Amino acid sequence: MKAEKLKKGDEIGLIAPSRFTFGFKKELDEGKKILTDLGFKIIQGKNINKRIGNSAGAIEEKVDDLHEMLRRERVKAIFCALGGDSTNQILEHIDYKLFKKYPKIILGFSDITYLLLAIYKKTGLLTFHGPNLKDLSSYNKKTISFFINLLEYSSTNKKISYPNSMNIIKDGKAKGKLIGGNLFVINSLLKTKYCPDLKDAILFFEDIDESIASIEFQLYQLRLSGILNKIAGIVIGHIETNLKKSELKKIITQITYDLNIPIIKVDYFGHHSKNFLIFPIGAKILLDTKNKEFSLLDSPLK
Questions:
Q1: Matching CATH topology for 11-151 and 160-296?
Q2: Which of 55, 86, 137, 271 is catalytic?
Q3: What's the rounded Cα separation, in Å, for the pair 235 and 294?
Q4: Does 110 qualify as catalytic in the annotation?
Q5: Do residues 275 and 160 touch, judged by C-beta distance below 8 A?
Q6: pTM for the whole structure
Q7: Which residues have CB under 8 Å from 268's CB, separation 6+?
Q8: 161 is an active site residue
Q9: Which residues have CB under 8 Å from 221's CB, separation 6+?
Q10: Is 238 a catalytic residue?
Q11: Which one is catalytic: 27, 55, 129, 206?
Q12: What is the per-residue pLDDT for 76?
């Protein structure tokens, strides 16, 4: 199931499903200006400025904002303000039937991965792993250009390719559905009813942690879960850690020593990446290391 593409004049709903927004007014205002300059109108959830502990309000308040944006006819996309550590609280309270009735673009990353994967799993609606509004102004012009190309001008007869600059960890060619997000969140959702089927998927992930041991632990958790034996390929984004690239490659190679699948490392998505290109979760993708091709096989929007 696909949402409709964006058009200038459409409304974009802004919600905060995780962390509170206090202290980020400047960054959020800068993100809003980018979107309004592109011709969109921003509609804020009525509870977006609430706070309980580190959360942007109570569970029911966050869910109400999400449901309200789905029901608003002129709102064609829902963007998340920022990540955090409490999006998983709302998963069991969401009315997923609303996404089938009102399919809309849902965009965010980091802790928002919980929401993106759960929606895709429960409804089949393609969701979008991309910049939260707080971070939008920190990325370069390529991010905005790709954003427009994918979310506004996407069409079935236009091929959308990612940059061919890639660090190839393992050679190969694969086709499959693009599924992933934050590595910690993926591991947290495994074996729950909110985790999509990863059989023959192209798994992508990013993460943020200063501990080498923690990153290595998360990667080995993927292996122990058995997921790595099911997937068709791996795309690794920016890993915010003190790991050197050579050390990360060595760990990945050790963990996937018995897998004959293409694995690449790129730097255009993830925490503190200078460029953040949107990945549509559930879209059909081609990964071909020989020709250095990483591209969508059809449009993720109607």
A1: no
A2: 271
A3: 9
A4: yes
A5: no
A6: 0.94
A7: 142, 162, 163, 237, 238, 275, 276, 277
A8: no
A9: 187
A10: no
A11: 206
A12: 95
Tokens of 144: 């905005």
The domain defined by 11-151 carries CATH number 3.40.50.10740: yes
Separation between Cα atoms, residue 13 and residue 115, nearest integer Å:
15
Residues facing 264 on adjacent strands = 168, 235
Q: What is the pLDDT of residue 269?
A: 92
Amino acid letter, residue 282: G
For residue 34, which of 138, 189, 155 has the smallest C-alpha distance? 138
Domain residue ranges of the chain, discontinuous segments joined by +: 11-151, 160-296
From first to last of its 302 residues, the chain has per-residue pLDDT tens of 999 988 889 999 999 999 999 889 999 999 999 999 999 999 999 999 999 999 999 999 999 999 999 999 999 999 999 999 999 999 999 999 999 999 999 999 999 999 999 999 999 999 999 999 999 989 888 888 888 878 765 554 567 889 988 999 999 999 999 999 999 999 999 989 999 999 999 999 999 876 778 888 888 999 999 999 999 999 999 887 766 667 888 888 999 999 999 999 998 998 888 889 999 999 999 999 999 999 998 888 88
Annotated catalytic residue, options 18, 86, 110, 154: 110
Supply 184's token pair: 């910690």
Architecture in CATH for domain 160-296: 3-Layer(bba) Sandwich (3.50)
| Encoded tokens for 167 | 């660090």
